[in-house]
């Protein structure tokens, strides 16, 4: 048809990735398939080689669902993720009733993203578990990579860390069969696995995984490289390698400071930067990131992010010796409209316990730490639980 690889790639992937697709060394993502269908003016069935009569592409009366999908996208662009989720949930239910597999998948994946943005993590997890359990999702390695990657993030975000680790390794095992080795999906999955291992304090393989992720990311566009450096900054901080953490933080900032970075992602990066710098014992450097997050937070309709910003503020106040301020804001973290859960709650509890100890309220601090150790056990974060018990012993002596 006379299309160059650069034109086919558009803003979705690189020209070299198109070359790998043409040689059969990569499989296209759903977004790329839709993009190529539009550029080539070719029906999806013809482009993917699937017959309309197949179970995966028969979509009777699907136009109304496509319209609902478009309306949801518009609501999301306006920041109304609750409305977007409502529209997609209704469309997804209809697709399930009609038995339209392709639309179930497309709408389900779109819905889980809006549920995440709306802070409805338990609902997102339940949806992804249903999708991953479908028969048509069990035989296609590419689908398994997509679904188990998202499932790992949902399990991580709801505190099911052992399950998240298992799902991430399941997805990783399908990377080769799906012909996604070195692709964006591979880089992202390694980042998710690294984050889960860090949450579990299971750090034995983290350095090797970091090197692999960073090596693969070098062949990608700046947003992918930026996110790889972002994950690296957090992981190296967890490993106690402050110089490496700050180095990757600087690289991530350089790659992500573009108009293409979504505001919510930039907000999350600002929080991460503040935490990395506090890990390094530098509250002065962390303060501008905290203040910027507090300014940007109201622009993002995300109560869970607002609570995490308050948690960062509490951590900063503890670092500068203002323990009374920590105790004052703690109820907003544990009992507010969007209370912290899972690993986020563990971290907040540790901050509150240190503040109570600094104020001489050691019995309250010990009681909170005991509850936190029990929470660590629920999360299967056993190494972290041991650290919490050691701190309790210190307060007793």
TrEMBL record:
What is the protein name for this chain? HTH cro/C1-type domain-containing protein
A matching Pfam family:
HTH_3
GO terms (molecular function) for this protein are:
DNA binding
Residues covered by the HTH cro/C1-type domain: 13-47
Q: Which CDD domains match?
A: HTH_XRE
Organism, by scientific name, is Streptomyces antimycoticus
């Amino acid at each position: 048809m006379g299309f160059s690889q650069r034109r086919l790639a558009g803003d979705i992937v690189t020209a070299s990735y198109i070359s790998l697709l043409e040689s059969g060394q990569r499989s296209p993502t759903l977004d790329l398939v839709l993009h190529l269908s539009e550029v080539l003016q070719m029906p999806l069935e013809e482009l993917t080689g699937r017959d309309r009569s197949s179970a995966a592409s028969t979509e009777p009366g699907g136009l109304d669902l496509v319209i609902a999908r478009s309306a949801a996208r518009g609501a999301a662009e306006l920041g109304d993720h609750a409305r977007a989720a409502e529209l997609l949930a209704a469309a997804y239910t209809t697709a399930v009733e009609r038995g339209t597999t392709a639309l179930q998948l497309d709408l389900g994946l779109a819905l889980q993203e809006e549920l995440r943005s709306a802070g409805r993590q338990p609902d997102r997890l339940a949806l992804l578990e249903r999708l991953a359990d479908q028969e048509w999702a069990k035989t296609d390695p590419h689908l398994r990579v997509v679904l188990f990657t998202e499932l790992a993030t949902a399990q991580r975000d709801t505190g099911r860390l052992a399950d998240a680790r298992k799902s991430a390794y399941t997805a990783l095992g399908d990377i080769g069969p799906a012909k996604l080795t070195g692709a964006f999906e591979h880089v992202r999955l390694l980042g998710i696995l690294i984050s889960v291992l860090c949450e579990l304090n299971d750090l034995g393989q983290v350095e090797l995984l970091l090197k692999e992720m960073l090596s693969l990311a070098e062949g990608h566009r700046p947003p992918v490289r930026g996110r790889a450096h972002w994950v690296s900054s957090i992981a190296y901080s967890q490993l106690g390698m402050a110089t490496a953490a700050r180095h990757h933080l600087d690289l991530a900032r350089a790659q992500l400071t573009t108009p293409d970075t979504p505001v919510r992602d930039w907000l999350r990066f600002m929080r991460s930067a503040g935490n990395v710098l506090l890990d390094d014992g530098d509250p002065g450097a962390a303060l501008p990131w905290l203040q910027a997050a507090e300014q940007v937070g109201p622009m993002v309709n995300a109560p869970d992010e607002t609570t995490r910003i308050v948690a960062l503020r509490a951590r900063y106040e503890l670092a500068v010796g203002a323990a009374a301020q920590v105790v004052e804001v703690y109820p907003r973290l544990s009992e507010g409209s969007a209370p912290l859960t899972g690993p986020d709650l563990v971290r907040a509890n540790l901050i509150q316990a240190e503040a109570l100890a600094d104020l001489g309220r050691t019995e309250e601090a010990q009681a909170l730490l005991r509850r936190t150790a029990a929470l660590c056990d629920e999360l299967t974060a056993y190494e972290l639980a041991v650290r919490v018990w050691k701190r309790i012993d210190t307060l007793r002596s």
